[in-house]
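Quick one:
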Amino acid sequence: MQKPTSYQRLPHGRDCDCSVCWSRREMAKPDPSRSTPCAQCRPAYARPIRTLQMGCVGGIWKPLLSEWKVEPAFVCEKHTRPDRPPKYWSVVLDTGRPTPYVPIHEPFELVG
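Output:
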C-alpha cells in the first residue's frame, strides 16, 4: 500500500484520465462564453480634436474648452444582449382569476 504523500509525487502519464489531468486540459481550452472579447466589438471613446480656449492654471497652460469627437461603441451580433431576460419558468396551469379569501363568520356556541 502506498502512502498518500508518495502517491501524489508520482508523474502522470501522457494519456492520464484522472480528474486532475482532465481539469488541467479543460482549463487550457479557450472560453466559449459570450464575454470573450472579439475583434469586431469596440468600446466607445472620445478624443479632443481642437482646442478652443486655453488658460493658465497653476502656472501651466491647459485647454479649458475643446471640441471633441465621440466614437460610439460597436457590439457584434454574438455579444448583443437579448431584448428580454431569459424565461426561467412558465405557467403550468392557469385556473383563471384568483378568488379572494372571504372569511366565514358563523355563530357558534361555547361548550361547557
